[in-house]
Amino acid sequence: MTFTFKTVDGHAMVAQAVQDMWLTGGGNNAAGYSNAEYDNYVKEAQKESDPAKRTALLHKAEDILMSDMPVIPLYYYTSVVVANPKAKGWIKSPLGGYFFKKAYMEN
């Protein structure tokens, strides 16, 4: 099973929010995970304004996290989506939400 936080552009902040959970001493780091190199990549990503560079930093952090594997996912959610192929512009987020603000029907 692949356990990944990598996302398409536009969802980098979702990935970062999840990766913040593993920062040394972080309030949501219940596992007590600690890796200085991982912390550095995540903190650098938080300061980076360029989306491509931020995503690259988060991918490096993710590689460390997946190598260290501080937790093992026991299950994951699935969802089935059926949509009219003419429906465009809607987004399914990595967290399972649906966004229709820019949705439209193609003629």
Largest sheet: 2 strands, antiparallel
Straight-line distance between termini: 39 Å
Query: Which class best fits the helix and strand makeup?
Result: mainly alpha
Tell me the strand order in the biggest sheet: 1-4
Nearest-integer average pLDDT: 80
Quantity of strands, as a count? 4
Counting H and I runs of at least 4 residues, what is the number of helices? Answer: 3
Global Rg: 16 Å
Approximately what portion of the residues adopt beta-strand conformation?
5-15%
What would you call the shape?
elongated
* Element-level helix/strand string: HHHEEEE
Roughly what percent helix? 25-40%
Low-confidence stretches: 1-12
Kindly list the characteristics that best describe this protein.
elongated, 36% helix, two-stranded antiparallel sheet, mainly alpha, 107 residues, 4 strands, 3 helices
Task: Explain what this protein looks like in three dimensions.
The protein has 107 residues and is mostly helical. It has 3 helices and 4 strands. A hairpin with a 5-residue loop joins strand 2 and strand 3 (98-99). Helix 1 (12-19) runs parallel beside helix 3 (51-68). The longest helix has 18 residues, at 51-68. The chain is elongated, with a radius of gyration of 16 Å.
